[in-house]
Amino acid sequence: MPDFRFTDPAGKVLELKALRGTPVLLNLWATWCAPCVTEMPMLDQLAGRMKGRLRVVTVSQDMEGEKAVAPFFAARTFAHLEPWLDPESELAFHFGGANLPMSVLYDASGREVWRLAGDFDWTSTEATRLIDLAMPDPG
């Protein structure tokens, strides 16, 4: 898992490396990206459904940062997503100038399991199957 820090509009800090120990679905998105906007409610549902088993982290790549993201979140009722900001798009550059949306799944040890560029139906059985690849074996 890359070693990056993000903030939310209130100044709260998130360090990705501190999330090791739990599988993480990292999603790069932007308010101007129509497929990203479509995915957000599904990602919120996924975060609620997988609470305690998978951390869903959505990181905005909007260059306007809080100015774009705060109103976007205020206009919606996400119960589980947090508005993490990356106005310099450092994460997108880390992933080679990523097309948005981009999602990367990490297992609990921080190893990348898979990467998906483009929109995806996070409520589908295919999503569940792909996420299960990072889940610890219960047996």
Quick take:
This protein is of the alpha/beta class. The chain is built from four helices and seven strands.
Structural summary, described in words:
The chain is α/β, with parallel strands linked by helices. The protein has a single domain (20-132), classed as Glutaredoxin, CATH 3.40.30. The chain has 4 helices and 7 strands; from the N terminus they run βββαβαβαββα. The protein has helices at residues 34-49, 66-74, 90-94, 125-132, and strands at 5-7, 13-15, 24-29, 55-60, 84-85, 102-106, 112-117. Strand 4, helix 2 and strand 5 (84-85) form a beta-alpha-beta unit.
List keywords for this structure.
139 residues; alpha/beta; Glutaredoxin; 5-stranded mixed β-sheet; two-stranded antiparallel ribbon; 4 helices; 7 strands; 27% helix; 22% strand
Percent strand equals 15-25%
CATH topology: Glutaredoxin
- Taken in chain order, the helices and strands follow as EEEHEHEHEEH
What is the residue-mean pLDDT, rounded to a whole number?
93
What is the CATH top level name? Answer: Alpha Beta
Query: Which regions are unreliable across 5 or more consecutive residues at pLDDT < 50?
Result: none
CATH superfamily: Glutaredoxin
> What does the largest sheet look like?
5 strands, mixed
Distance from N terminus to C terminus (CA atoms, Å) equals 25 Å
Portion of residues within helices: 25-40%
Strand order across the largest sheet: 5-4-3-6-7
Oligomer: single chain
Class derived from helix and strand content = alpha/beta
